[in-house]
Amino acid sequence: MSKSAIVGLAFVIAARTLAAQDPGLQRLERELARIAALTDGKVGLAALHLETGRAAYLNPDEPFPMASTYKVPIAVELLTRVERGEVGLDTLIELRPQDLHPGSGTLTELFDDPGVILSLRNLLELMLLISDNSATDIVLRVAGGPQAVTERMRRLGIDGIRVDRPTIQLIADWIGIDKLPPEPEWTPSLFGELARGVPDSVRAAAARRFDQDPRDTATPRAMTSLLAKIWRGEALGDSATALLLDIMRRSTTGAGRIKGMLHPDVIVSHKTGTIGGTTNDVGIITLPDGAGHVALSVFIKGSTLTVEQRERVIAHLARAVYDYFRFNPGG
């Protein structure tokens, strides 16, 4: 076992001991379970007070589809390569027609013709700020692909996060598209044509399989561990850490999730994820008045509620966590 894995295991054991001994944390977990019951899906949560190590959990070791929250580990691997000098954030990348992928973001909508050139920093920001899927798949390619990201997580001592597919394949699998065309044959309009050809019954079966698919999943505990390592500077150097947290702080998505019931002045560096019955938000909350910071991961899967209803559940969960650690900051 690596040194980082040993340290991480010791931290988990310590956090569990604290929770078992702290009646306040036990009450918090009961309140979180009560709120989670408001959704018909499965809720996973891991909240860690970064200064004291106290933690609260719901289904912390169950894998959940990451959806676009997997862009956080992708960013870590990319920035690791930047720190090593293997690639520069000022590197210019020309977007090809086959780089324009479906889903969230604006690149596919804004740029129909080839020849657009963006820096790697631009693409990283688009990936995290507006969750652009086209930018994500380019960043993932430059970062060495899914296996490289998963291996980075293992080297950090995190076993509960795995990245397996680019977003275009992930979405295709969720919809039930059997096979995507070779990359040279790709056009921005082709995905819509393929998606419209999938019968409703096939879509429904594909969505059910997606919720059980081990690929591109994270446990709440593992994602919160990654957030903690980022915040502590254990995943990246000082400059890359500051850059990543700043971009996540400026995220434009998920205003109704972790941030939904917090005061607008509360700083939250976060990343959302949404697909089908999955609605997620993961990030770091800066508590006021020197009360510290909380790394929080909330995942919902298999829900038939509207996205807005799921977001309200996440907002209530985040508010309960925020209130507890704000008014009980000590170790």
Produce a short descriptive summary.
Helices cover 47% and strands 15% of the residues.
Describe this structure in words.
By secondary structure, the chain is α+β, with helices and mostly antiparallel strands. The strands form three sheets. A five-stranded antiparallel beta sheet has the order 2-1-9-8-7, with helices on both faces. The chain has a two-stranded antiparallel sheet with strand order 3-6. A two-stranded antiparallel ribbon has the order 4-5. The mean pLDDT is 92. It has two domains: 3-65 and 217-327, DD-peptidase/beta-lactamase superfamily (Beta-lactamase, 3-Layer(aba) Sandwich); 71-212, Beta-lactamase, CATH 3.40.710. It is 47% helix and 15% strand. The protein is built from 13 helices and nine strands.
Q: Number of helical runs?
A: 13
The CATH topology of the largest domain turns out to be Beta-lactamase
The helix-strand sequence is: HHEEEHEHEHHHHHHEHHEEEH
How much helix, percentage-wise, in residues? 40-55%
Strand order of the largest sheet: 2-1-9-8-7
Content-based structural category: alpha+beta
The CATH level-2 architecture of the largest domain is identified as: 3-Layer(aba) Sandwich
CATH superfamily of the largest domain: DD-peptidase/beta-lactamase superfamily
CATH class of the largest domain: Alpha Beta
What profile does the largest beta sheet have? Answer: 5 strands, antiparallel
Task: Name the shape in a single word.
Answer: globular
Number of strands: 9
Q: How many domain modules? A: 2
Radius of gyration: 19 Å
Strand content: 5-15%
- Termini separation: 29 Å
Q: Uncertain spans, ≥5 residues at pLDDT below 50?
A: none
Mean pLDDT: 92
